[in-house]
Design a protein that fits this description.
By secondary structure, the protein is an alpha/beta fold. The chain has a single domain, classed as Aldolase class I (TIM Barrel). The chain is 38% helix and 14% strand. The chain contains 11 helices and 10 strands.
Length: 298
Amino acid sequence: MVENEKNEGNQTLRRPEWLKIQLQAGDGFRDLKKIMKKSSLHTVCEEARCPNLYECWAHRTATFMILGDICTRACRFCAVTPGKPAGLDLEEPVRVATAVQEMGLRHVVITSVARDDLADGGASVFAMTIRAVRELNTECKIEVLIPDFMGDRQALQTVMDAKPDVLNHNIETVRRLSDHVRSKAKYDRSLELLSRAREMSTTTPTKSSIMLGVGESWDEILMTMDDLRANDVTILTIGQYLQPTRKHLSVEKYYTPEEFSQLRKIGLAKGFRHVESGPLVRSSYHAHEQAQEIVHQN
């Protein structure tokens, strides 16, 4: 990651102390690294350069990225490699399930690159992976972080029919900046997907995430919260955008821990059942604790 980042006005912003990351590659990290390499699997932790990689892997928690490591979209904030994917690996779901078993996970997050080259956007492979994981890991909770499938209702139904324990789709940013920040994704399409997921399964918690620091205003953040609540989103995560390389979007502002704490309180007051808000929070950060809290509230 770059230590100093330039905003659109070419002013260099120095990364504040609260965003300094301590890297600790303990036994848990090394074990997961071996399993991933042996199984020829990808994690969004590595591909997206997540700042919490060492912490999560040390606690034997990882987010699997299925459908390859080449994305058909080129979002301006994302470090995953864009391009033309090569085919499908239909043995991948079983390898993910086996890796989850080897790692002894109680909560797994499964995400993917965008696969707009596929008729169903990869929804059938999501469903296969959910079922394979559940067959080998009956006690493991399964969270999926899905793309928008270009608004295909049947693709979403395919995923929901596999009965994930949590359905996650990220809104990413405020309405005004959505087209600028995201590739092909549409703000209202994301809201519609989240709403449809709740219609398809009223008992499945839905989740979304907002990253801050790409030019949004405070009022726009609150309006995005309202839009998500209006579509019955259950869990919200809020984190600081960090520029992965110099070719990606610049950071416009670093929010303080106090501002993130305030947003957490506001989100809970607006009706979210869980809000994870902090500078280094990412969509899958503390996912196991979030799901547990929702279960305990029921």
